[in-house]
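TASK: fixed-backbone design
INPUT:
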């Protein structure tokens, strides 16, 4: 691998930052140079959160420009649409099918956009989609959406599952480990 660029997008409280730490740990275990940059919007109020994870033989900057991401992990559909231009044409969108109303929708000043899935499909990228919220609930905790999506990403990589699990054990607090491993395995098993 020369370089791998991954963007994680979602809203505050979805676990995007833990997901980025896990990706960083996996990269380190593989001996890669890794840079992680977290961009917090109004994360405390459910606003947009973006994280860049770059890994490879040598990484100089953590920032990913438009058209440079190999993977876009979207924890929410509208965030996927908002950031789809950052994904390479041959890149892969890992998409949670969940829709979370942003503040303007909650206050009634606008409506949640329609036809998001069709717009994402028109971008001409590979899409791997899952109802990660439902899957996380089935695993025992709705907060494990992040691990479902990481598992789905891991299933597309050449990095062995044991590396992912060991890394997960190092970044997730012990009391939440079992549910996070179940959620990871649920995403990893999707083909």
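OUTPUT:
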């Amino acid at each position: 691998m020369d370089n791998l660029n991954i963007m994680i997008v979602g809203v505050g409280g979805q676990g995007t930052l833990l997901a980025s730490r896990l990706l960083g740990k996996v990269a380190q275990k593989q001996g890669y140079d890794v840079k992680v940059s977290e961009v917090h919007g109004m994360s405390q109020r459910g606003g947009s959160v973006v994280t860049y994870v770059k890994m490879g033989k040598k990484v100089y900057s953590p920032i990913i420009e438009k058209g440079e991401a190999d993977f876009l992990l979207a924890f929410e559909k509208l965030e996927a649409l908002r950031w789809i231009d950052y994904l390479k044409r041959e890149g892969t969108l890992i998409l949670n099918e969940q829709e979370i109303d942003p503040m303007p929708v909650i206050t009634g000043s606008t409506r949640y956009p329609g036809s998001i899935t069709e717009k994402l499909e028109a971008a001409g990228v590979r899409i791997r989609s899952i109802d990660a919220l439902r899957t996380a609930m089935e695993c025992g905790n709705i907060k494990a959406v992040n691990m479902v999506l990481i598992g789905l990403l891991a299933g597309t990589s050449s990095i062995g599952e044991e590396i992912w699990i060991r890394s997960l054990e190092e970044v997730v607090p012990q009391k939440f480990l079992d549910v996070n491993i179940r959620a990871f395995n649920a995403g990893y098993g999707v083909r």
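COMMENT: The beta strands are 3-11, 33-40, 48-56, 69-74, 87-96, 126-130.
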